[in-house]
Amino acid sequence: MSPTTYAGLVDLAAASLLLASVLVVWRRDVRAMVTVLAVQGLAVAALPVLEGLHGHEPSLFGIAGLMLALRAVAIPAILAHLVRDRPEARETRPLVNVSASLLVVALLTTVAYGVAQPLVALDPTPAVHAAPAALAVVLIAVFTMATRRRAMSQVIGFLMLDNGIVALAFLTTQGIPLVVELGASLDVLLAVVVLQVLVGRMRAATGGTDLDDLAELRD
Amino acid sequence: MGTTLLLAPLLAPLAAGALAAVLPWGRVVAATGVVAALVILASAIGLAAVAGSPAAGARVGWLHADALAVFMLLVIGVVATLATLAGIGYVQAELAAGHTTPGSVRWYGVLVQVFIAAMVTAVESRNLGITWVAIEATTVATAFLVGHRRTRAAMEATWKYVLICSVGIALALLGTVFLYLAALHAGATTTQALDLGWLTTHAGALDPGVTRMAMGLLLLGYGTKAGLVPFHTWLADAHSQAPAPVSALMSGVLLAVAFSILARIRVIADGAVGPGFLRVGLLVVGLLTLVVAAGLLVVQRDYKRMLAYSTMENMGLLALAAAAGTPLATTALLLHILGHGIGKSVLFLSSGQVQQAHGSTAIADVSAILTRRPLLGAVLAAGLAALIGLPPFSLFASELGIVRGLAERGLVLPLGIGLLLVLIAAAALVRHGIGLLLGSPQPDQPRIALPATVAIPLVVGVVLLVALGISVAPLQTLLTHAGAILAGPR
To answer: How many domains in chain A?
Structure first.
């Protein structure tokens, strides 16, 4: 792969990541959000493939396969299963409306490019030049989690956050050590499994009640 | 010998957990859990002899036992012994009352041991990446322990706990990635880049801009697990819903383990970007934590949440001690971790008995414990007195040390504000404590059970607190060396 192609493809993957985050903020239909999340998982898994081809490190392909299976297939599948029998799967309680949210997203992206300057200055490779986009994904994810109230939207926000962090790791350091990557995968899996178990328990215990209606613990 | 002592604290709880998975909960499984905790304690005592100087200590692969790791192992060992022993009677009562099922209890037996093993890994690891995975594993292990009772409130607490701690720990991962990047550029190999020893000795070569980002994220991330502002909101919910022995383990050691990592990282930050950066961060976070904790203690109506906010208050105090960072302050910080761990375990375990009797955690529902169950009342009174920082308990000495450390560093204004908030918190604890302990017993109040397996750890805990308050001589060498690691190179 020529350096130009490599740089172009890395930019494409990073741009897809960012675009997916914007779409998640834009759409209020949870099912559409899950689809977008799967696409974002695909873009994250593309990064180790590109790094592997560029740096001639075949070991990265294994990691890419793992990430593809988890982030683009398994987790979106579990989430899709959870929302399938719930026609009312829309984010009904965003704290900030969509147009204002999109403005904030634009602002956060600008901030990300400013904040990431030390990274770019330290190591001005094509991959690191794309890192601010991944940092923007992280900021947008935190914003999403803070302003969305439904359990499902929050989990999607968390998965975006994790996608952003893993993408940053690949863009800046050609990947963190494998144990850490495995730990990060375990963490996202945990969040989704806990969500699934709790939703199941809630349905078994109370019939129709949703996790979102729980608000007993407060001071 | 060092290798065995280093591996035993890790393998013992894993073996006990495996046994709990195979056999149903009963005397054998419960006793094995206690033995595993005692193995951790014994190994820590054995390792203390090896960790004579800060540089020395046993080491195998990415595991190490410098003085700080040994001290934290000691804290884990003590609190785990108290909690697993008291867990026997607690689980029995939960089963008898129908709050849980034999199937859930089997999970409880497994997850508690996995939780303890994860904390041991976090403490013994010299690789920040593996430490991160271990801390994250504690969330995985405790998620379903928090929701053990399966009530609506327990499910809500589980959800908040998993979500907030996952976000926090994800931020710590981002910080770890940035630190890794800075280390690679400073000339580290991929295996050295997250090694605590390498990072500490080469801190000066790390890129300041990237390290600053890394440190801010690590403070937020590990601060989440340590119950520090701004991601502290999971703490009171999880602590009030979890089974009492799990609350004891979380409050007594998990938060302290997360904090000890933060304190270690501070040394690297000081070398890379100067001591001012994290000092300001820790002071701000510590004081805000104290503000939130003191405020919510005053208005608190639930005794388990009260204990949780008191834990937050103590974590805020630890943050101030770490900000001072003098050897005196860091030694006091460690002694405070031990004293608070024991004291808070005693209180959570006692509160578990009260909760089982009353079926409620409202302060207003409970009174006259001192006359209804004098031993339990006395233990509660002693535990509260210890937390307030009264002599003869060891927290008196450690709080005094933290105050002197802050004064030594010239942080007079934070010290003044901190002391005021600690006093407010203490007054609130006294007021609530009087409500729980005194009053005249009513005929319709339920009987509070106190089986021997719970009574023994409670009394042992109080005796330990007094003993440590009278003299820390047996621990002095270990404390001094561990404190020196946290104070950093002079």
So the answer is: 1
Q: Which domain holds residue A177?
A: 3-211
Task: Identify the domain containing residue B324 by its residue range.
Answer: 2-487
| DSSP element (H, E) containing B170 | helix B152-185
Backbone angles phi, psi at B189, to 5 degrees: -80, 170
Interface A-B: count of C-beta contacts within 8 A? 132
- Overall number of domains in chain B: 1
Q: Which sign, positive or negative, has the C-alpha torsion A158, A143, A180, B168?
A: negative
Q: How far is CA B475 from CA A177, B254, B305, B335, B432, in A?
A: 37, 21, 32, 9, 34
Q: What is the mean pLDDT of residues B422-449?
A: 94
Which chain A positions have a beta carbon within 8 Å of B137's beta carbon? 183, 186
Q: Is the pLDDT of residue B450 over 70?
A: yes
| B220 closest CA partner among B265, B250, B157, B161 | B265
**Alpha carbon B13 to chain centroid distance?**
18
Is 0.90 topped by the overall pTM? yes
* Cα–Cα distances in angstroms (integers) from residue B119 to residues A170, B47, B133, B139, in the given order: 28, 17, 10, 11
Structural domain contains residue A190:
yes
Q: Is B197 exposed, middle or buried (CB count within 10 Å of its CB: 0-12, 13-18, 19+)?
A: middle
3-state secondary structure of B206: coil
- Chain A neighbours among B 109-138 (CB < 8 Å)? 129-130, 132-133, 136-137
- Give the tens place of pLDDT for each residue, A109-159: 999 999 999 999 998 899 999 999 999 999 999 999 988 888 888 899 999
**pLDDT tens-digit profile of B57-116?**
778 889 999 999 999 999 999 999 999 999 999 999 999 999 999 999 999 999 999 999
pLDDT tens per residue, range B212-249: 999 999 999 999 999 999 999 999 999 999 999 999 99
**What are the chain B neighbours of A117 within 8 Å (beta carbons)?**
209
Residue B313 burial by Cβ neighbours in a 10 Å radius (0-12, 13-18, 19+) = buried
Sequence-separated (6 or more) residues with CB below 8 Å from residue B435? B363, B364, B366, B367
B167 has a chain A CB within 8 A of its CB? yes
Nearest Cα residue in chain A from B157: A217
Residue B300 and residue B435 in contact, taking contact as beta carbons nearer than 8 Å:
no
With CB atoms and an 8 Å threshold, state whether B166 touches A190: yes
- ipTM score: 0.94
- pLDDT level of residue A105 (50, 70, 90 thresholds): very high
Can you give the length of chain A in residues?
219
Residue A217 lies in a domain: no
Q: Do A151 and B166 touch (CB under 8 A)?
A: no
